[in-house]
Amino acid sequence: MGNEETQSTLPCYQSCIININNYYITMRDYKREYALYHSKPKQVKRRTARNKANRMMGSVPGKDVAHKDNNPMNNSPSNLTHQSKAKNRAEPRKRKGDPSKRAYARMMARKMK
Predict the structure, then answer these.
(1) pTM of full prediction above 0.70
(2) Contacts for 31 with CB less than 8 Å, ≥ 6 apart
(3) For residues 35 and 53, what is the distance between their CA atoms, to the nearest angstrom?
């Protein structure tokens, strides 16, 4: 088939998948991603609050500043801690021992009744 190239647009932030000789390459459209999500006023406020928390806590190599209640707007010192990047960036419902995971399980159990 030679150097056949096909491109399809996705509705999400990753804008296209390119197929070159059955190798699929995903390319992100950062300009579109910024326009659809990162430039929204609510997201700008949340990013600003996260940056403020990072400045307050200082940096530790290999760690992120984590918000214990998963609310980036709550920058009280008792709510901030350093946490491994893998644990901090995981979906909150999937974190082991996370109070929000237990709360989610209780909520789902109530819905099933």
Answers:
(1) no
(2) none
(3) 25
Q: Is 71 within 8 Å of 49 (Cβ atoms)?
A: no
Same domain, 64 and 104: yes
Question: Does 61 share its domain with 30?
Answer: no
- 43 lies in some domain: no
The identity of residue 31, as a single letter, is: K
Q: How far apart are CA 14 and CA 28, in angstroms?
A: 4
Half-sphere exposure of 11 (CA within 13 A, CB side): 0
- Quick one: 62 and 103 in the same domain? yes
Question: Alpha-carbon distance 30 to 46, whole Å?
Answer: 19
Residue type, 3: N
Give the pLDDT confidence of 26-68 residue by residue, as tens digits.
Answer: 777 888 888 988 899 999 999 999 999 999 999 899 999 999 8
